[in-house]
Design a protein that fits this description.
Rossmann fold, 228 residues, alpha/beta, 7 helices, single chain, seven-stranded parallel sheet
């Protein structure tokens, strides 16, 4: 079950999600809609979500030219692609760095106080690996925006039903997940594959009360999920 807030313990909140059609973003959205402490969930997307909900407010946007955003308490960034899908490093960066940062800046300008990011294991702005470097540069840029609380999830290999989202199944993920089932006892916790649902739940627990910077590696997120 997704974590829910106690309305008596916390004032009602509103949230914004970018990337709600992705593997982790979908889980974040469903968790927010089920949270009794959430009044409204604003979703930024290029295409319709395909469903309605009393709390859901969908906004069709061009991430390269965002309009002023609604005032919310929390922001969740789950926009992401692959270089193969994007077609080039520049197109990848336009999504994973530019679009995420644009949403964060616009949300902060509208008064958002806390932000949760779906990043990646190995994120490092000084990395020689392009993917890891872009992820690290985004984390670094978000730290400079002045959010009261910033929670960064760094999942390892993500497990989830991509086919149900109309996404191609990634060959590397398929083989990696199969291999990890056999080797799980000897794989360090932070390197084990993690369910997209567990990443989402970790952010949903941490973001509402976050203060300062908090980084969640896979091992910690799986431990949090095991305690539910």
């Amino acid at each position: 079950m997704p974590p829910t807030s106690d309305p008596a313990a916390h004032p009602a909140r509103s949230a914004l999600v970018a990337g709600a059609t992705g593997l982790v973003g979908r889980e974040i959205l469903q968790g927010l809609l089920a949270d009794r402490g959430i009044l409204a969930v604003h979703v930024l997307a290029r295409r319709p979500l395909g469903f309605e909900h009393p709390k859901l407010v969908a906004h069709a946007v061009n991430f390269a030219q965002l309009p002023p955003l609604p005032a919310v308490d929390e922001v969740y960034l789950a926009l992401g692609t692959t270089i193969k899908t994007a077609g080039s490093q520049a197109a990848f960066r336009a999504v994973d760095f530019d679009a995420n940062l644009a949403v964060a800046r616009a949300a902060r300008a509208a008064g958002a106080r806390r932000l949760g990011l779906v990043s990646a294991m190995g994120a490092d702005s000084r990395s020689s690996i392009f993917y890891n470097r872009v992820k690290g540069e985004l984390e670094q840029a978000l730290e400079g925006l002045g959010f009261e609380g910033l929670v960064i999830a760094r999942p390892s290999l993500l497990a989830g039903d991509r086919a149900a989202l109309g996404q191609p199944v990634r060959g590397g993920e398929k083989w990696g997940l199969a291999l990890s089932r056999w080797l799980r006892p000897v794989i360090p916790a932070n390197l084990r594959p993690i369910l997209a649902r567990d990443v989402a739940q970790a952010l949903l627990r941490a973001v509402p009360t976050a203060r300062g910077l908090q980084v969640l590696p896979s091992g910690r997120m799986q431990a949090m999920a095991a305690r539910t």
